[in-house]
Amino acid sequence: MSKYALKVGVTGGIGSGKTTVCRIFESLGVPVYYADDRARTLLNTDADIHCGLKAIFSERVFGADGRPDRKYIASVVFEDKEKLAKLNDLIHPAVGADWEAWYSNRKADYPYVLKEAALLFESGSYRKLDRVICVAAPESLRIERVVKRDGVDESAVRSRMKNQLSQELKISLSHHLIKNDGTLSLIKQVVLLHRQLSKGG
Fold it and tell me: Are residues 46 and 94 both part of a single domain?
């Protein structure tokens, strides 16, 4: 068994229920790093990122409160793939460094820790993990959940899905699968996987 905690990723398409699964793991005492939440925090607070944003988007990127205007950024990168690539090149390394610092503070105290991220494969960050769990659910159910959760229409959800790898590909690239379609108990699946990972794999 490894001297340090295994690095285990949790990913899945939009609306698959990644966060719900991670909350169950947390209830079992497993630390979870929420990459997307941390990215938002760093976007608002990191001075180096602010300099980079200004270079990519100009001063217009900052709202009246001095924080980056995320709606403006989203509208620009939706139309401009080059600026999206530059934004990713700015954000992903910062989140990577933040994750490594977070991991260093916990690696000696747990058999494994989790990193939850929607774009685990798309960003390439999965390469630095020991295992990956994919949370999966039928597309119709995922769309229904996101429409309800975010108050958006189905076409908006489908356009967001296009920016992610297909669920089938994510499953094929992952070591473990958790089905969140209502046919199997989510808690039972998590507990079984927790036992397995606690033993080192």
Answer: yes
